[in-house]
Amino acid sequence: MKNAPMQIDPNSNVDLSAQIAQAIRDAIMGGELIVDERLPSESELADHFAVSRPTVREALKRLAAQSLIRTQRGASGGAFVNRLSYPEAYSQHITTATLLLSMNAVSFETACEARYAMERACAALSARRRTADHLATMRAEIFRQQQPGLTDEAFCASDVAFHRALVDGAGNPVLSYQLAGAVEAMQPLMNMITFSARSREAIVKLHTDITDAIEAGDGPAASTALTALECETLTLAQTVFAERARTGKR
Amino acid sequence: MKNAPMQIDPNSNVDLSAQIAQAIRDAIMGGELIVDERLPSESELADHFAVSRPTVREALKRLAAQSLIRTQRGASGGAFVNRLSYPEAYSQHITTATLLLSMNAVSFETACEARYAMERACAALSARRRTADHLATMRAEIFRQQQPGLTDEAFCASDVAFHRALVDGAGNPVLSYQLAGAVEAMQPLMNMITFSARSREAIVKLHTDITDAIEAGDGPAASTALTALECETLTLAQTVFAERARTGKR
DNA sequence: CATTTTTCATTTGTCTGACATTTAAAAGTC
DNA sequence: GACTTTTAAATGTCAGACAAATGAAAAATG
């Protein structure tokens, strides 16, 4: 906090709490405030920015919503710069990705293409690095997907678990994080799909192809199978959309 | 808002404002509140949740920080469900990605690997879809990178512009969005690198290879060149880290 | 003296009530 | 009818207060 004036402009037409939040956000991202460092108390911040405590609190809540700070009550409590954890980052990412999709700013086709493009990238790494555990999970999910009487939801959940194992096999948490957002965002739409016996068969076949390729360390083959799966997914989804369009919205 | 009770638990040890924010967030993401729909006024929300207006306001600021709502003053003003725009989503993503990197939750190597894996995925699409504009931008940036007397910062900025054109060539905004986060997050570290004449030459050579491959519609060749560029970047960055480690932190 | 209990100051969480500012619509005026 | 003024509603901001949690110092206790 030494070299951080953190000034705001009271005459701006922007909310004071937004300005204060931005000033503190800049200080955190610029390195002036380091992880676990305690911010001044709300009263002190109010004095510093020449605003009231509720205004400071609104600013702090904005930062808390972004997981930039955490607060603690009591003596020696206060607001502390938060070390962003993976679960927190996941949550943020999924919220954003889901909204981008659901608000139609992104078409299903575009999201699907992006997802499978990234998954193919993971597959190449996964073919080299996957452990026996990842392979075992993938095989187990394929087995589950073949059970007769499986509900569509359970099939879908197993599908997600399969892809998760595939992606995690790459051993890169950043890629897992990116994919988690893409997969989660598509989940509501995927859950609307009715998986016929024939389409399940096709999917299981492709999952097997992918797993075989990963096991053999053959990245290109895994990519090819993923592309086929992308086509299958897109076709199924478009059927659902057509149905929705005919029977009216929702 | 019809079928949305949106109740909270006053006896929970969680902040009331956090609970209220979550309740409204769920309503938005669950589709009970649609885009551009107006939320009840702060006073009405306060009555509904049986809390005071400042508490409601803190909740609304949390949602505003995530771009879930926007507020408008005056008569017929209020809080409205916000249609998440790309710039807003970008901003959120970049903030999260930058913090994950800067707080050392992610190593540079991991971030670099993820970035280039995704870029290779883009390259395959870009080879099929890039317009003449994208190619022209890439060539122009390569030309700029060859100018003698170019500062490291300018070289770095041109590098970013080159990669941006490459990624945008894929014509998939979701991929562009994902990559923007990865590239922006690495930017602070990239800016610390000193690009020697020899390393610039190597990079320009690889950029040319990539562009040639994209122009020829040869995705695999572009991928190969990108892998070589990844190695180059990693080597350069590691040199910087070693320097930093020897001369002490920062 | 060591240990436990109590007190106390600090800080966030919440409430009440008020006023300022912005904004669109209603009312009034020419 | 077109323009101006008024008004009501909503967010933005402030001031002060109390509640609740919490750690540390002070006091009591063995």
Would you write up a description of this structure?
2 copies of one chain form a homodimer. Chain A has 250 residues and is mainly alpha-helical. Chain A folds into 2 domains: 16-81, Winged helix-like DNA-binding domain superfamily/Winged helix DNA-binding domain (Arc Repressor Mutant, subunit A), CATH 1.10.10.10; 87-246, Four Helix Bundle (Hemerythrin (Met), subunit A) (Up-down Bundle), CATH 1.20.120.530. The first copy, chain A, has helices at residues 16-29, 42-49, 53-65, 86-102, 108-129, 132-145, 152-168, 173-190, 197-215, 219-246; strands at 69-72, 78-81. The first copy, chain A, has a two-stranded antiparallel sheet. In chain A, strand 1 (69-72) and strand 2 (78-81) form a beta hairpin. The model of chain A has no long low-confidence stretch (mean pLDDT 91). Chains A and B meet through helix 1, helix 3, helix 4, helix 5 and helix 8 of A and helix 1, helix 3, helix 4, helix 5 and helix 8 of B. Chain A binds a DNA duplex (30 and 30 nucleotides) through residues 15-17, 41-43, 51-55, 57-58, 71-79.
Keywords:
homodimer, 250 residues, mainly alpha, Four Helix Bundle (Hemerythrin (Met), subunit A), 2 domains, DNA-binding
